[in-house]
């Protein structure tokens, strides 16, 4: 115990400062990581919602045009609005990766035979 109390206090104060500095950098990195994940989540939500709404709007517009030019009353709008809703749901499921795209069925590894092969 040859250390003076002042030296002990200075070393403890330096150690405390280092600990506080390391905690601050850890928290700032954690905040940045959470902010980046949040931005990615918002981007995915906007993409999915815009694809869903686009299907409904296109179906409603085409139904309106059909009713206007063919004089079919509200039936063209009703039918194409429902088809637009179904197309919007299908687009959302495809974007989310829950439903395979139509091209994936044809590109299976066993179907890679070339036209020039004799097999």
TrEMBL record:
This is ATP synthase protein I. GO terms for biological process: proton transmembrane transport. Pfam families: ATPase_gene1. Residues 104-119 have a biased composition (Basic and acidic residues). Belongs to the bacterial AtpI family. The keyword Transmembrane applies. It comes from the Bacteria. The chain crosses the membrane at residues 48-66, 72-93. A possible function for this protein is to guide the assembly of the membrane sector of the ATPase enzyme complex. Residues 100-119 are annotated as: Disordered.
